[in-house]
Amino acid sequence: MQHIDVIMPCGTKNDRLKSITQVALQSLSISEDPNKVKFHPVVVESHPDVLGFDYKQAEKVIKPEGDFGYHRYLNIGVAHTDSPYICLINNDVYFYKGWAKALIQEFEQDPELMSASPVTMKEHNHRAEIGQGGIWYGSEKNVHLKGWCIFVRRELFNKIGPLDEQFRFWGCDLDYCQILDKYRIKHALITDSIIDHRGCSSWRGHPESDNEPYLWRDNLKYWIKWRKQTLEAKNTHDRVEVLNWLIHRYGYKTYLEIGTSCDWCLAQVKAENKTGVDPNPQWHGAENSHVFYYKTSDQFFELNQRQYDLIFIDGLHEKDQVYRDLTNAQKILSPGGAIVVHDTLPPNEDYQASTRCGETWKGVVSYRYDNPELHVATLPEEFGLTIFKQNLETREEQPFMPPRPDELDWDFFIRNKASLLNCVSWTKFTLKERLKHY
Fold first, then answer.
1. Which listed CATH number (3.40.50.300, 3.40.50.150, 3.40.50.2000, 3.30.365.10) goes with 236-435?
2. Which has fewest Cβ within 10 Å: 45, 95, 303, 357?
């Protein structure tokens, strides 16, 4: 007899949502021979008015105090159970016959297998395309790992500890993928185990399900947690590292960011005093800056009375707006300060779309043309980070090629971007700036 704990977080707010959970529990109860597999379903329910008898197939109904959190609820369920196998699963699912048998069979054949996910019926019918028989090893989200169903050995938690409860809704599956990689946990997609997922139907209407700011908030938490490992794996650097390097190298204290989006940089830049400007941010947390202006950059510069040591420009990616932002930023830059502009090296012509790099490079080149005394260096990281700063050691090794207005096209940029933007590597830039005063 195999014993399996089935942990099912729920956010029941009406009869429709309650019926979704009931269907899942009913299909679970008839999915395996009860003489061979014993399920121990545990519903962790956020709604205080749901009574245990509403889920008669559940062995336990737990109603925790405090706010809903998907990882938090899973941890509670795990703590209240003791079977050797645990299924962590959404409530908007339908279990097909033999789903658990197929999983257990693979776990018994492979003692190193610690985690697995099933497939939907549609995926099962196309399993031949995988070309890996009934099992496909890996840890990629939506490929090998299905965040709505993770089947594990209980001993897994002895190695990884409890799930990270800062992820309340979004980002839970991405975080688990990273956990698998960090601890080198063997995970697989089992194509003979079939559970249909009803497309997040149980979370429609949940306050965090359709609210984009919550999505950006949790994505930011994920990136802050895993940023270092991700960059090291790709052997690259990002805008946060560049900005923090400048802050540390030159002792900058005050920081201004034009175009904060979802606080990606604003939350991670380590300046003593931070100001953010964005008329319509995707998300902003008050804890991520000392001052925030819900204004356009033009409106902000018109009212601003202070200077800044480091200014990061990532606002509207139109040529004229980038030019104005640079002009206004230069007026309020502290002596010895720096300006960094994002998205100045589009990798191909399509990236000149306004939702990507836009015309940022045109604004930067035009500004350089009108201000030839300024020193510039451009790093290739994250589609180009152009740094304006006096006395840069990495100033031009080849003369700036001033363009005519009719030459600001893609072909001209591709031929001359090295001189237009003074492109240098991260290694060269940091080495020369470190050695400058020695």
1. 3.40.50.150
2. 303
Q: Record the tokens describing residue 109, joined without a space.
A: 């054949």
Q: Which helix (H) or strand (E) holds 314?
A: none
Q: What is the DSSP letter of 419?
A: H
Parse the chain into domains and list their residue ranges. Answer: 2-217, 236-435
Query: How far is 234 from 270, CA to CA, in rounded Å?
Result: 23
Instruction: State pTM to two decimals.
Output: 0.75
DSSP 35-95: TTEEEEEEEEE--TT--GGGGTT-SEEE--SSS--HHHHHHHHHHT---SEEEEE-SSEEE
Between helices 360-370 and 410-421, what is the axis angle to 10°? 50
Q: How far is CA 82 from CA 2, 4, 42, 85, 137, in A?
A: 12, 9, 12, 8, 27
Q: What is the dihedral of CA 146, 149, 154, 157, to 10 degrees?
A: 50
Model confidence pLDDT, tens digit, residues 60-109:
999 998 888 999 999 999 999 999 999 999 999 999 999 999 999 999 99
pLDDT digits (tens, 9 = 90+) for 21-56: 899 999 999 999 999 999 999 999 887 776 666 788
